Amino acid sequence: MEKIITVTSPLIPPLEEFTPYLEDIWKRKWLTNNGHYHQELEKALCDYLKIPFISLFTNGTLPLICALQAMRITGEVITTPYSFVATTHALWWNGIKPVFVDIDPRTGNMDPDKIEAAITPKTTAIMPVHVYGQPCDIERIKQISDTYGLKVIYDAAHAFGVERNGNSVIMAGDMATLSFHATKVYNTIEGGALVCHDAETKQRIDYIKNFGFANETTVVAPGINGKMDEVRSAYGLMTLKHVDKAIEARKQVAIQYRAALVDIPGIRFFEDIQGVKHNYSYFPIFVNEKQYGMSRDALYEKMNCAGVYGRRYFYPLISTFSTYRGLDSAGRDNLPEAYKMADQVICLPMHHALTESDVERVINLIRN
Ligand SMILES: *Cc1c(COP(=O)(O)O)cnc(C)c1O
């Protein structure tokens, strides 16, 4: 039996590298609540990501929920069905009605041409996703949000380190969120962050993630416990030193895939975008059954049988899940491009530890 190739593999530095951090934490006897490593990681991430303010969280879902709380978003929020389910769940947990708009098949991101028609008197914000780390049409979305007086919160869970014309894409919008889950390009095992643009907002977010405590006796909001602990903050400092090398290895995998897949009829994939520094977080392909001669699911099964585990991100669409399928905006007629992409996608194995021969094995399964 050949070795199993998984869609991702967590970035885990050698254990010896982590031991000194643990010894230091044991000495300090400070395990959570804005400790030494928590502060160090916030500083290091601001430097690395070229952003002024970040607030760490214990996962990537709570910053979405807390961003909506911090800005007091209510009513309806325009979002994309083509994402991980946490994006829409965050709205639901705030009692907000998600309004889905279709995607642009060239990027997988929310189609800005579809946003205005979805705005109602109850709309208060737009929540787009930089899906697969591909930057949204930030300018168009800003123009629309400015015109209608809407807030914008980007779910930037896939966009760690992505830059456009030298600027971090997570600077776009009123706030942006990150996920540092084990499966992401950069991980703290579980973890996440909320990015904002001024010190007052960061202060408010820091209160909200700690039950709303502003001091020993004052609670300013119905906050939650979203704090990241010292052990995972230290883990994050350690993995941050390895992330550039990991992204470079991913880039080589993307180059190898593209060179081989370009000749296969019915297989579409994304190219790098001019001026964008990509993070190669995912490598989605889109199977056109007629041209390729086999369905997406048949190819997916064939790969699985050969020990190559791709994933159908993002199938099924969020709009098909029981909580959301009754919404007016959830139907296939409103979201034709999103349904089509969800029906065609396979994310191929993509991580820092894939060898050339691993990638060759994946390619050969698609080729014949
Ligand atoms: C991973 C992910 C999240 C949630 O992050 P967790 O850290 O797993 O809570 C949210 N949105 C998107 C688009 C994601 O891919």
Summarize the structure in words.
With 368 residues, the protein is an alpha/beta fold. It folds into 2 domains: 15-240, 3-Layer(aba) Sandwich (Aspartate Aminotransferase, domain 2); 243-367, Aspartate Aminotransferase, domain 1 (Alpha-Beta Complex). It has helices at 15-28, 36-49, 62-70, 86-93, 138-148, 199-208, 230-240, 243-261, 289-292, 296-305, 336-344, 356-367, and strands at residues 5-6, 53-57, 76-79, 97-100, 123-127, 151-155, 163-164, 167-168, 175-179, 192-196, 267-269, 276-277, 283-287, 308-309, 345-348. Strand 7 (163-164) and strand 8 (167-168) form a beta hairpin. Helix 1 (15-28) packs antiparallel against helix 7, helix 3 (62-70) packs across helix 6 (199-208) and helix 8 (243-261) packs parallel to helix 12 (356-367). The radius of gyration is 21 Å and the shape is globular. The two termini are 20 Å apart. The mean pLDDT is 97. The chain binds pyridoxal-5'-phosphate. Pyridoxal-5'-phosphate is lined by residues 59-61, 83-84, 86-87, 129, 155, 157-158, 179, 181, 192. Pyridoxal-5'-phosphate (PLP) binds at residues 59-61, 83-84, 86-87, 129, 155, 157-158, 179, 181, 192.
Q: Superfamily at the CATH H level of the largest domain? A: Type I PLP-dependent aspartate aminotransferase-like (Major domain)
Give the CATH class of the largest domain: Alpha Beta
Order of helices and strands: EHHEHEHEEHEEEEEHHHEEEHHEHEH
**Domains, number:** 2
Strand segment tally: 15
> Which percent bin holds the helix content?
25-40%
Strand content: 5-15%
Poorly predicted ranges = none
Question: What is the alpha-carbon Rg in Å?
Answer: 21 Å
- The helix/strand class is alpha/beta
Number of helices: 12
**Ligands, deduplicated:** pyridoxal-5'-phosphate
